[in-house]
Amino acid sequence: MLHATMLPPMRKRQRRTEGTEGPRYGVEVKFPDVRLYLVEKKMGATRRGFLAQLARAKGFLVEDVLSERVTHVVSEQNQAQELWQWLRRQALNNLPTLHVLDIGWFTDSMREGRPVTLEARHHIQDILPEASTHLPVVVLSRYACQRRTSTENHNEIFTEILQCGRSFEVEKILCNDRYQRLKLFTSVFGVGPKTAEKWHRGGLRTLNDALEDPGVELNSMQKAGFRHHGDISRAVSRAEALALGEILHQAALGISAHAVLVLTGGFRRGKEFGHDVDFLLSTPEQGKEETLLLSLVDSLRRQGILLYCDHHPSTFDINNLPGVSFEAMDHFAKSFLILRLEDRQVEGGVQRPEGQHDGRSWRAVRVDVVAPPMERYAFTLLGWTGSRQFERDLRRFARKEKRMLLDNHGLWDKTKKEFLPAEREEDIFAHLGLEYLEPQLRNA
Ligand code: CTP
Ligand code: MN
Ligand code: MN
User: 157-231, which class in CATH?
Assistant: First the structure.
């Protein structure tokens, strides 16, 4: 619900002249035909002020108050319906010609230093529930799980925004220095946003600073992260992912003839490069999946290719489902690994920095392996195939439109108060009343 107190007070609309805030500090107005208004709701006053300042510095006109002079309304994370209801209450005569846009348009425009061309994905559609039958047939679905998103229309910038949380991209433009540091520090495997922030606040500026500072105590994960930093910050190719698949498959079959190993994550969605390689490991032998994973890791160690392993034992308990926080990490046994991949194991050799050869015949690669019990296989496969945005939308769709809770463990029907079984991903889509989407079309 929109709370009246959070909206700009109506009386402010009278004070139009005060509301106009052009570029400051002698920056010329570069785009006189574009007048922005940033919706404070969800964005918050501080951030709104911040973004307005940024836009003005780049020669944009930003109005503090919503009036009929505004041409572009920019909103962040607001529900289309609520936003439009509020806009209609403002009784603006220019509402039909007003561009109501997602923050993504703003972000792109700030990066380009000019108002970028409006595309369908930028518009926040007015969805009138009572008028839905009169809507044109082509309305961009609100949920990625109802759209077909291949790797071609993959938008790098949006993905970045989504992976780093709320509009990190904008902060990048704003606080270039801080952003660059945090990005640098978190690029080390084992260094999360909290540690990165701490290092930044402590005045550390380079990775060497972190290595040499006597006050910094690295845990074993971070030590491995630093040791292999160059290798694991380099993209993993599809050929490398397939080579690792072969190595893990052989190792798994060496342990159990029933072992099932499936490539998931970005590579299953058809991506050519990834930051790691994700696998799902299981077995029809009930309750044996975690032992299988541990044996697999052991086998890799004996082969001398295990450079690092962070194992998370299973905390899965069927009696605790559905969990309270359905969005959290799954409870299955999983291992976050760093593996050694040899040139000779990969078609064309391993990825190296452009034009360089350091004399090594191998590189380090990050590998994730999750081991769910077989009856949870379809849910985990769906969850680990991603993309993150696709999963988020699928879960939101299940909750809001179907009164169902979906996660990597299962699908709970709140109306029927029961779990819906699934052997394959297709079964899950069917339960949700959605057309099945191949992994290649889940690149939202
Ligand atoms: N995932 C998950 N639980 C985890 C880790 C990952 O459910 N503990 C899911 C993520 O939601 C994501 C998928 O597994 O959808 C793959 O994660 P990740 O490797 O981070 O992303 P990719 O899409 O594979 O991207 P990249 O190619 O950069 O690795
Ligand atoms: Mn991945
Ligand atoms: Mn991963």
Answer: mainly alpha
Which ligand 1 atom is at minimum distance from the Cα of 334? 8
- What's the CATH code, domain 35-142? 3.40.50.10190
- Say which CATH class 236-441 falls into: alpha beta
pLDDT attached to residue 177? 74
Q: What pLDDT is attached to residue 169? A: 55
Q: Is 274 in the pocket of ligand 1 (CB under 6 A)?
A: yes
Q: How remote is the CA of residue 369 from the centroid of ligand 3, in Å?
A: 8
Predicted TM-score (pTM) of this structure: 0.68
CB 252 within 8 A of CB 241: no
For the chain, the domains span 35-142, 157-231, 236-441
- In our burial notation (b when 16+ CB lie closer than 10 A, e otherwise), range 185-223 reads bbebbbbeeebbeebbeeebeebeebeeeeeeebeebbe
With a 6 Å cutoff on the Cβ, whether 391 touches ligand 1 is yes
Residues with CB under 5 A from ligand 3 (ion): 276, 278, 368
Cα 35 to ligand 3 centre (Å) = 42
